[in-house]
Design a protein that fits this description.
Elements lengths: L3 H16 L5 H32 L18 H12 L1 H4 L15 H23 L4 E9 L5 E10 L5 E10 L5 H14 L7 E6 L3 H4 L5 H8 L5 E3 L1 H15 L1 H18 L2 H20 L24 H12 L1 H13 L7 H14 L2 H24 L6 H21 L1 H15 L9 E4 L4 E4 H26 L4 H6 L5 H4 L4 H11 L6 H17 L12 H11 L1 H4 L1 H12 L5 H13 L9 H12 L1 H4 L4 H11 L8
Parallel strand pairs: 1-4, 4-5
Antiparallel strand pairs: 1-2, 2-3, 6-7
């Protein structure tokens, strides 16, 4: 039995242990839980970083065989292995070192992570829009598995005065009826708390289901929101104008058929491409030896012929330019094909090559090639400008007007330079130049004229006039009262276009829902001060677009002084210019949903595209933020906080 002193000492020891919290079970459990949470977060952080990186690069996630014995377990697992090989802490908590029920590497977890990131991107876009009015830009296309997908882009002006076109969503639609498209668009907008009544513009292509005046998509939105003005994609209109102009001029139409024959005959074979490069090298060496070419880093690159695309008429310009640059090597390759006989050669191919050789030695082929280079060079610059996200409707129409003037200038003053360039090119290539004063028998038109008359008036003038005519026809519908009044806000030439009455009419006629009657009176008063203040302010000198004006107002704080003018400018900038952003989304879709990934689910495709296209937003999210959002989706076995 214990003595009294021994019992007392034991009790004192127990009391001391009781006072020491480190000996309690709670701190021990708390320490173990803290370490477990840290390991769980590190494990999930690794998976999130891998998912985000693979999505940014449009890479596939899974492999054909993800078993432990597989030599290639797919991009996701292989990337996790790579990260583990560089970090011992990561290695200690992932893959085989992770709990079997909390590895966070399954396909379902990958989808949930994508869902979290995509939702955060959409929330960020919604926050960026705020209370601003916006425009919807919509287009449809089929994906790799032949499913119809509708891309939705939102155009708005942010608080700093920058025009933004954000990819909002992509939705699978069962048909392309306008009612179906409207229902899906409204569902997306409603999910993000975007009011249809705040739509101030619609941008679509010229399909009947989109632009129809009675049952088209634009008409259905106008019925619900009368200020959602529809603008036919200007880039699409330019495309239609170029196609129509080429078809109306017989010689030009035939030229593009001949161009396709020449290019296809050469680039359709790997061997012929190699021969083309070999002839290029030989030509470059000869020109450098004769000191006709400058040498230097990046100069005299070896290229190939560009095929003209069926849907992108601007690609015809690239095709023409590439042929002019590679004319002699192309001719030599075609000549070799035409003269090569024996086993393995195809008579039909030799016949095509022989026909192409004869075409390339004709003056008319070279002449039209240079005409189209000059003409399409003018419209190609316009095409690129119209596809810029920061383009505004007023500046776009100014660019169209400038293009028309350049085409007219080419018609009036471009002949002498053109015929000089063609003659010089023909002499260099050994092509016979006809006597311009000699007679030319035109059997099609039934007239006998001079050679110069045929090339100058029957081809050059007609081609230029037809192009100008198509541009006038396609873009004349844009010269509406709305756009005319919008030009009164144009800051070019020191605000000489500013007209107070026109600005007030713009607000009262086209945006009455955005300005109360009292605000319209205040707007006129602000304009009177604005007219005397802003044009002479050093901060507003040399502005060229309304978009620049909007940004400068925000930078200088003048947007607070002239808040009604700023509001009107933002409404004008919201009007769409082209559907190029949606088409870029479909280009991204082809990178994400490929032939090898054609069974991708619509949800997975949607998440990937939102993250891939809006990468600049997705990259800003911290991993800890994404972990917390992931944990909030549902109750997890593993603890993260």
């Amino acid at each position: 039995p214990k003595t009294l002193a021994g019992s007392h000492q034991y009790s004192v020891k127990c009391y001391d242990n009781l006072k020491n919290r480190l000996c309690h079970i709670e701190p021990v459990i708390e320490k173990q839980t803290s370490e477990e949470i840290k390991a769980n977060r590190l494990r999930l952080r690794t998976s999130i970083n891998v998912v985000r990186w693979l999505t940014f690069q449009a890479c596939s996630f899974r492999g054909h065989d993800e078993s432990d014995s597989s030599k290639n377990q797919g991009n996701f697992l292989e990337m996790v292995k790579l990260l583990a090989s560089y970090d011992e802490e990561v290695k200690a908590v992932v893959l085989s070192n992770a709990p079997q029920n909390a590895k966070y590497t399954s396909p379902q977890i990958q989808k949930e992570i994508l869902n979290v990131i995509a939702d955060n991107v959409q929330k960020a876009i919604r926050s960026e829009i705020g209370d601003a009015k916006f425009c919807i830009i919509v287009d449809e296309s089929r994906d790799e598995s032949r499913r119809e997908q509708m891309a939705l882009v939102i155009r708005f002006v942010d608080k700093d005065g920058f025009i933004r076109e954000r990819f909002l969503d992509i939705v699978h639609v069962h048909d392309t009826y306008s009612a179906t498209l409207k229902q899906e668009i409204c569902s997306v907008l409603s999910a993000l708390n975007l009011d249809v009544q705040n739509i101030r513009g619609q941008g679509y292509d010229g399909a009947s289901n989109m632009r129809g005046e009675w049952n088209g998509l634009q008409a259905k939105f106008l019925d619900e929101c009368p200020y959602a003005y529809y603008v036919h994609c200007l880039a699409h209109q330019l495309q239609l104008a170029l196609v129509a102009a080429s078809k109306e001029v017989t010689e030009v139409h035939n030229f593009f058929d001949h161009l396709a024959l020449v290019v296809d005959t050469v680039v359709s074979s790997s061997k012929r491409n190699d021969d083309l490069r070999a002839h290029q090298v030989a030509e470059l060496e000869q020109l450098i030896e004769l000191s006709e070419l400058e040498t230097g880093r990046g100069a005299n690159q070896i290229g190939t012929l560009q095929r003209p695309g069926e849907t992108r008429w601007s690609s015809h310009y690239d095709s023409v330019c590439s042929l002019i640059k590679l004319y002699k090597p192309t001719f030599l390759v075609l000549k070799d094909i035409a003269n090569t006989k024996g086993p393995g050669t195809i008579p039909a191919t030799r016949a095509k090559a022989a026909g192409a050789v004869k075409l390339m030695m004709k003056f008319e082929f070279v002449f039209i090639m240079h005409v189209m280079k000059e003409l399409m060079g003018i419209t190609n610059l316009l095409c690129k400008k119209l596809q810029q996200k920061s383009q505004d409707i007023v500046n776009a129409m100014d660019d169209v007007a400038t293009t028309k003037r350049l085409i007219q200038n080419l018609r009036d003053h471009g002949w002498n330079k053109l015929i000089s360039d063609v003659t010089q090119f023909c002499n260099k290539q050994g092509i016979k130049v006809p006597n311009m004063a000699s007679s030319y028998a035109d059997y099609v038109r039934g007239a006998e004229v001079t050679v110069e008359h045929h090339y100058r008036y029957d081809i050059f003038m007609v081609a230029v006039d037809q192009q100008a005519h198509e541009l006038n026809c396609r873009f004349s519908e844009q010269a509406t009262e709305l756009l005319t009044l919008c030009t009164s806000l144009d800051p070019t030439d020191s605000f000489t276009k500013l007209k107070i009455d026109d600005v007030c009419s713009l607000a009262s006629k086209f945006y009455p829902a955005d300005f109360s009657e009292q605000e319209r009176d205040t707007l006129r008063q602000q304009l009177q001060h604005y007219e005397l203040d802003v044009p002479t302010n050093p901060s507003f000198q040399n502005l060229t677009t309304i978009a620049e004006l909007c940004r400068r107002l925000a930078e200088t704080g003048k947007s607070d002084d002239y808040y009604l003018i700023d509001r009107l400018i933002r409404l004008v900038l919201t009007l769409p210019v082209s559907t190029a952003t949606t088409e870029r989304a479909f280009s991204a879709m082809k990178l994400v949903k490929t032939r090898l990934r054609n069974k991708m689910e619509d949800g997975f495709l949607r998440y990937c595209l939102i993250i891939y296209i809006e990468k600049e937003i997705a990259v800003e999210f911290t991993t800890d933020q994404l972990i917390d959002d992931f944990d909030a989706i549902q109750t997890r076995r593993a603890k993260f906080k």
